[in-house]
Amino acid sequence: MTDAQRRLFAKIKNLFSVFDKSRSGTCDIREAGTLLRAMGVYPTEAKLKDIVMQILDPVQPTVMTLDQFLRVAWPLIAAQADPRDSDDVLYRAFLTLDKDQRGYLDVETIKRMLSTMGEPMTSEELEEMVSSIGVKDGKFFYGALAAHPSGRLSADRD
Questions:
Q1: CA 39 to CA 46: how far, in whole Å?
Q2: What is the pLDDT of residue 95?
Q3: Cross-referenced InterPro entries, in alphabetical order (predicted)?
């Protein structure tokens, strides 16, 4: 196991322990999606159901151990954790959406895209996402999240 894999394993183990409320070495199987998303993996609901079915132990169908979770989730998490060009990809994705190169996206545009494209988000999910991304005057300034490919961060605008 490489150093990066050891760090990733430790991060997963620490995160899993947050959901192991009884300190029994298990957590509710319904938290599989939350754990995956916290690790940067965003499966569709259909894919998540498939993942849960792979983790599921018929003897204890409501809980999962870290080993059961890792058996299925490790390949997904490890593939997502590959940091190659992640800042560059994110920055370019924002630039694609920001046709006028203003450095921000209108929140209403973001909501419209996320509720109509791909797997649509619910209004509750949209509101939670918007409240967590740091909106100012109806605008989401993406520069703080996406590094410019040159290595510098795009400037936030006040």
A1: 19
A2: 84
A3: EF-hand-dom_pair, EF_hand_dom
